[in-house]
Amino acid sequence: MDDRSVIPRRLFAFARPLGAAAMLPLLAACQTAPVSTPEEPSAGQTPADVTEQAQTPYQGALQAFLTAEIARQRGRMQEAGRWYARAASMGGRVPLYADAVDAALRAQEGAEAEEYATAWREAAPQAPQPLFGLARARLQQGDREGAVAAFTQLVDDHPGEDALYLSAGEQLAEVRSIQAAVAVLRQVAEDRPESAVAQAAYGHLLARLGRRDPAAEALRNALSLRPDWEAAAVELARTRRVEEGLAILRKFLADYPEADQARLRYAQGLLATGRAAEAEKVFALLAERVPERVEVQMGLGLARFRQQQWDGAEAAFRQALGQDPGNAGALFHLGRVAEQRGRYREAMAYYSRVEGGAFRERARMREAVAAVQLGELQRALRLVRQMRSFHPGESAYYRLEARILAQMGQLSAAEQVANQGLQKHPDAVQLLYARAVIREQQGDYAGMEADIRRVMEQQPEDAKAYNFLGYSLADRGVRLKEALRLLQKANELAPEQGYILDSLGWVHYRLGRLDKAEQLLRRALERTPGDAEILAHLGEVLEAQGRQEAARGIWRKALEQAGEETGLAQELRRRLEGDVP
After folding, report:
1. Is pLDDT above 60 for 1?
2. In whole angstroms, what separates CA 372 from the centre of its chain?
């Protein structure tokens, strides 16, 4: 009996994920004649010399394969390529030629890679990959014409290998240069104007290089030849400005409504441009069609989150987490939902489970913010200082540490941290805001104003800066005409925002214009219903008008919204109890 019948035919297929060392126990369990762990070949020995000493061709192929794996792990790529090629030729495992070609190309041995690709093609004449290997090998040797010839034949013989063509440019660039890859694909596209895959391969590479207009032209050519090619439509949309890209996808979906990947890209584009309600409808349709796709559930959750649909957002994020346990994005956004609902302990639990990836730092930051909300200031301080030690260049950590210290009543220390941050990031607007708040709390109004005017210089269209300074002046009852001008400017930059209308109402109250103040404050409440501070201001205006009962009713509503232990809640209780003159 041929001994290869007792070794699973899938053995080589497992080789790459398992590796040579992990395969040895499998071999011991399933072979009839023992195959020893390969030793280093003697000096001057070739793969042919070693494998000829094996008892059978299959054992020789196996020994060659294991030796190739060891050589690859040790970085000896040229040697690995030779052993892979020997294993492929002896064992009849044609896919190992792909490993031989890749190893030779990594070793910059283009001639050997071409030899292996040629043998691969002879062994599998109907397969597309050998031709692509041949194109790569020739390009590495500087044989551009040979590479064009091989790639052209690939296009002619195998027009259905979409995934291969959409990654061809990057793989060609890896073996020689970007310029060489562009030249090859451009020539093939010119020689084969009737080939959709030739046009798409060229367009895809140009898109990756940021050459959007020529990329779009090539991709449009591909779509004119294959109007239903979803990947080409998605790539074309990426090359255009947002609105044009969305229009391309919208038209494609009208013609091909089953194109789920194009629909997903369309939904993501809507979400990225702030059209959360529209995006939600598209994501909801996708969730019905492909509920198992994590990115669909995440998109649906984000669309709902941005519309403050907390129940729906939580359901979608939980679905994503169930499909992909440990998904950092789902955990982070579940924490955000819990935070928005005031469930800070639950939010911290979610944030603490985010272990890595792009969300880790944001999760630690939000965990610290949630700790602040719970009054666990020492824990928050510890988290922020830990993150700041890891990322001393991040201005956000200085800002949050300063905020925490200020809440702990350590205003001098808070300002010192803000100063340290601004020494490293002198133009960090959020740090300037943070220090301005701290300075105002310390009664350093000149320092506060200097910081806010620096913000105005850097961001002259920032409505918040004008509102900040205007409200501060109005609240202290100083330079009221200037305060009014600043707040009118803020309202011009960000019309009808609740917090700005509140400030405008307050400055009119300070100027004695009570009817105007009441009108503005009620408009502010329409924009920001239930805001405790706006309600408190409205109550003061009503009291100044002599409408005591109406004022007390408004203050009671404000107290319901103010939170248990806030300074505003304490002030409202004093007013309701009659302790404020």
Report:
1. no
2. 27
**pTM assigned to the model:** 0.71
Q: What CA–CA distances, in Å, run from 88 to 19, 83, 113, 411? A: 17, 9, 14, 73
**SS3 of 238, please?**
helix
CA torsion sign for 293, 296, 300, 303 is: positive
Averaged pLDDT of the chain: 89
Q: CA separation (Å) from 374 to 335, 363, 403, 440?
A: 14, 16, 14, 24
For the stretch 359-378, what's the b/e string if a residue is b when 16 or more beta carbons lie within 10 angstroms of its beta carbon?
bebbbbbbbbbbbbeeebbe
Structure tokens at 280: 């939600």
The separation between CA 278 and the C-alpha centre of its own chain, rounded to angstroms, equals 21
For 183-236, the pLDDT digits (tens) are 999 999 999 999 999 999 999 999 999 999 999 999 999 999 999 999 999 999
Residues 6+ apart with CB under 8 A from 26: 11, 14, 18
Rounded CA-CA distance 233/218 in Å is 11
DSSP string, 381-438: HHHHHHHHHH-TT-HHHHHHHHHHHHHTT-HHHHHHHHHHHHHH-TT-HHHHHHHHHH
Distance CA 409, CA 398 (A): 17
Alpha carbons 415 and 436: distance in angstroms, whole number: 9
String of b and e for 310-320 (b: at least 16 CB within 10 Å)?
Answer: eebbbbbbebb
What average pLDDT does range 488-498 have in this prediction? Answer: 95
Instruction: Grade residue 282 by pLDDT with cuts at 50, 70 and 90.
Output: very high
Mean pLDDT of 25-44: 42
Instruction: List CB contacts of 3: < 8 A, sequence separation 6 or more.
Output: 31, 32, 33, 56, 58, 59
Whole-number Cα distances in Å, 99 to 4, 13, 102, 130, 487:
21, 12, 5, 11, 69
Residue bearing tokens 């985010």? 354
One-letter identity of residue 54: A
d(CA 520, CA 517): 5
Which residue has tokens 């009570």? 514
The H-or-E segment that residue 135 falls in is helix 129-140
- Counted residue by residue, the chain has a size of 581
149 φ, ψ to 5°? Answer: -60, -45
Looking at residue 55, its amino acid is: Q
Amino acid at position 139, single letter:
L
Contact 186, 193 (CB under 8 A): no
Confidence of residue 21 (pLDDT cuts 50, 70, 90): very low
The angle that helices 230-239 and 196-208 make with each other, rounded to 10 degrees, is 30
Q: What number of other Cβ atoms are within 10 A of residue 272's Cβ? A: 11
Structure-block tokens of residue 348: 């911290």
Contact between residue 135 and residue 153 where contact means Cβ atoms under 8 Å apart: no
The stretches of 290-410 forming alpha helices (DSSP H) are 294-306, 310-323, 328-340, 344-352, 360-373, 377-390, 395-407
